[in-house]
Design a protein that fits this description.
Order of helices and strands: HEEHHH
Strand order of the largest sheet: 1-2
Structural class: mainly alpha
Keywords: Membrane, Transmembrane, Transmembrane helix
Number of domains: 1
Distance between the termini: 31 Å
Length: 135
């Protein structure tokens, strides 16, 4: 027997927890700040795995940061499942790059060290909340 459209079940979108929305807003703000910093300082070479890349490759890696911030922020605000692995992979990339840069580049490393600590704390928190990404 065929079912009519009215009998089919429609998946219900669950409400997104406030902490994920807050996290998403922080990520979008971070993307806005990244974009501003990149445009205000076009000559700055972002250290990627201890190398300061220039030219087209350098611009690609500079703009990769705000793009991934915007994408993971958007996904977190909507509670999308893909936002969690996107943030975690991006965080692991950032953590690995910051670690290599810390080992290779000359001091001071205050900002890089604080970034690494805060990033690990965010990763631990989001790992504990990973099931909240369910839409």
């Amino acid at each position: 027997m065929a079912t009519s459209i009215s009998q089919e079940t429609v998946p219900v979108r669950q409400s997104v927890p406030a902490d994920l929305i807050f996290f998403g807003v922080l990520m979008i703000l971070s993307g806005i700040m990244d974009t501003y910093i990149i445009l205000a300082n076009p000559a700055y070479g972002l250290p990627v795995f201890g190398m300061k890349l220039t030219g087209g490759v350098g611009w690609f890696f500079k703009f990769l940061s705000p793009v991934l911030h915007f994408a993971s922020g958007y996904g977190a605000i909507l509670g999308r499942r893909w936002a969690y692995p996107l943030f975690m992979f991006y965080s692991l990339y950032g953590l690995a790059s910051a670690t290599v840069s810390r080992l290779v580049l000359p001091p001071p490393h205050r900002i890089r060290t604080v970034f690494m600590i805060v990033l690990v704390l965010f990763m631990i928190y989001l790992y504990a909340r990973r099931k909240a990404f369910r839409n």
